[in-house]
Design goal:
The protein is about 20% helix and about 40% strand. It is of the alpha+beta class and about 575 residues long. The longest helix is centred in the first third of the chain and has 34 residues.
């Protein structure tokens, strides 16, 4: 019996078309990706940066070391081969900073030429050439053409001397040197040799081991202790390596001194190169110095590697010896301070019942010198004054700098502080009443004084008797001063005054029968001595008047402070 097969079911047309299109797209994308990858590969290979990276990968530091060793002259000495010299001495000195730089005057875009550098040292010249174009038209490059250009002659020495303390063993590249290398002996010279007596220094053995390159170090031992390098010097192709004595044979001396001090080790002046610390803060400063805005500056001198016992000393700029204030038990650390007579002593006059601070610290009876002392300004003439003005005097010594001083009166009012040298006082309020009472009298004296010293030698005696002496207290400091002025005026010619201006001010009471004032005056005159017009300007001429008779016209000048500009 015949059975009919069912009719085969066919894929719809849509899906057949969809599969065909999808397959075509996959093929196109795959082909496009391949083409793009090749394009990018050719582009990357054409970049000079890629060419340089490939070169550095091929000629890494190890291969460059071989290049250097192959081209190093036959001058490495008896102890190291060229390869050992490069690997242990030259390459460590160069570091690992490997770069390529364009060679000036040779580099072009078509023929790039570079310098191979390790650190700041030129090793070789490398050039590249275009060899054609790739499928997509990008440049193709040759392998780098390398030409050695390195020069390490500056690291080479013709002779190598090694100076070691006598009795030391010296091992070089695994070989202990025998006496055949011994070149004689020399005296030991440490880092402070300039201060030590060479005759008292121990002997050192001097070895000569021939030529080689910088960085080659032996192992030196003294009684089993490995020694350290003291100095490594090179001059005119000769290298001299010196080793220090063991620490147990050496000591260091320090000297802490005020800045600007001259320091001596023994009798020899030390250079400032021995200063190791310029900001030393001393402990134990007085409270006045510790509170000062301007702190004393101390520096420390350090003298290392001394063999002999030498004591430091110090002097001020004036040549005075500094005071040794401390020294450690081993006599190696010394501290010096400015001598007391070169420090500042502040003397401070305060109104009776007032108070004073120095660098912000209030003074107490511990700094009190005296109460109700005659004011400093009138101390020399107090014998003429009834009930002279008095102040309270304080004193602070041992100051490194001029202090900041505040003064208040008994009522707590802050006063203006005046300072001359290191003596402090307070400004006093001028008296309008005294000015009213005495200004005419003072001006008359000043007018006569001007005439006295401008009227010429022929009239000086008469003017002195008539215009000056009637105003002067006999036997006073003013009388002595004017006697000196009289002698100096005896030879002057007469002056013709063109203009004269006198001003009196700042009248102050100094007792029941004493006052002072200040005078400014300006003169323009013709001088017969110089035969030309001259100007003179006097400022703050201070006159101190006393009245010992009690009469209205009994005011006499006992002191004058005269400053001419």
């Amino acid at each position: 019996m015949n059975v009919k097969n069912p009719e085969k079911k066919r894929m719809p047309l849509f899906w057949r078309i969809f599969l065909i299109v999808s397959l075509v797209l996959v093929l196109l994308i795959t082909a496009g990706g391949f083409v793009f990858a090749r394009y990018m590969s050719e582009y990357e290979a054409s970049r000079i940066e890629t060419v340089l990276d490939n070169f550095k990968e091929e000629y890494n530091l190890d291969r460059l070391a071989v290049l250097i060793a192959d081209n190093l002259p036959n001058d490495c000495g008896k102890f190291l081969s060229a390869e050992q010299t490069v690997s242990s001495l030259i390459m460590p000195a160069l570091g690992d900073d490997y770069i390529l730089t364009k060679r000036v005057g040779e580099y072009t875009d078509d023929t790039p030429v570079y310098t191979v550098m390790i650190g700041d040292r030129e090793i070789a010249r490398v050039s590249f050439e275009k060899t054609g174009h790739s499928f997509f038209g990008f440049d193709e490059w040759s392998d780098g053409k390398l030409e050695y250009t390195g020069d390490f002659s500056d690291m080479h020495y013709d002779s190598f001397y090694i100076k070691v303390p006598g009795g030391s063993t010296l091992t070089l590249a695994g070989s202990t040197l025998s006496g055949s290398y011994n070149h004689g002996s020399e005296k030991y010279a440490g880092p402070c040799a300039e201060f030590e007596d060479p005759k008292k220094m121990p002997l050192c053995d001097l070895y000569e081991v021939g030529e080689g390159y910088d960085g080659f170090l032996p192992i030196v031992k003294y009684n089993g202790t490995e020694l350290t390098v003291l100095s490594d010097a090179k001059a005119d192709g000769v290298r001299t390596l010196s080793y220090s004595l063991p620490d147990s044979s050496l000591h260091t001396v320090t000297a802490t001194v005020p800045d600007g001090t001259s320091v001596y080790l023994g009798d020899i002046l030390a250079d400032t190169k021995y200063i190791s610390d310029e900001k030393i803060e001393l402990s134990g400063l007085s409270e006045w110095n510790a509170a000062a805005k301007e702190q004393p500056k101390f520096v420390k001198y350090v003298f290392p590697g001394l063999v002999s016992d030498i004591t430091p000393s110090a002097k001020t700029a004036k040549g005075a010896a500094l005071t040794l204030v401390s020294e450690n038990e081993t006599h190696t650390d010394f501290v010096f301070d400015t001598p007391a007579d070169e420090l500042i002593t502040a003397k401070i006059n305060v109104p009776d019942g007032g108070s004073v601070t120095v660098n912000g610290i209030k003074l107490t009876d511990a700094q009190l010198v005296s109460r109700k002392s005659v004011c400093q300004e009138i101390d020399a003439i107090s014998k003429y004054i009834t009930n002279p003005k008095t102040t309270t005097l304080y004193e602070v010594s041992g100051l490194y700098s001029l202090p900041e001083v505040t003064i208040t009166d008994a009522a707590g009012t802050k006063l203006t502080v005046e300072c001359e040298d290191s003596s402090f006082t307070y400004a006093k309020e001028p008296s309008a009443q005294l000015k009213t009472e005495h200004e005419q009298y003072v001006t008359k004296f000043v007018d006569g004084y001007i005439k006295y010293y401008t009227d010429g030698a022929s009239r000086i005696a008469a003017n002195y008797q008539n215009l000056i002496l009637p105003y002067i207290q006999p036997g006073s400091v003013a009388y002595s001063y004017l006697s000196t002025v009289y002698s100096s005026l005896a030879w002057t010619g007469r002056c013709t005054i063109h203009n004269k201006q006198i001003k009196t001010y700042d009248y102050q009471s100094w007792g029941d029968n004493a006052f002072s004032c200040k005078i400014d005056f300006d003169l323009s005159f013709y001088s017969s001595n110089s035969e030309q017009d001259t100007e003179e300007h006097v400022r703050a001429w201070q006159l101190y008047f006393v009245n010992t008779s009690g009469s209205a016209n009994g005011w006499k000048i006992a002191k004058m402070v005269f400053d001419a500009e």
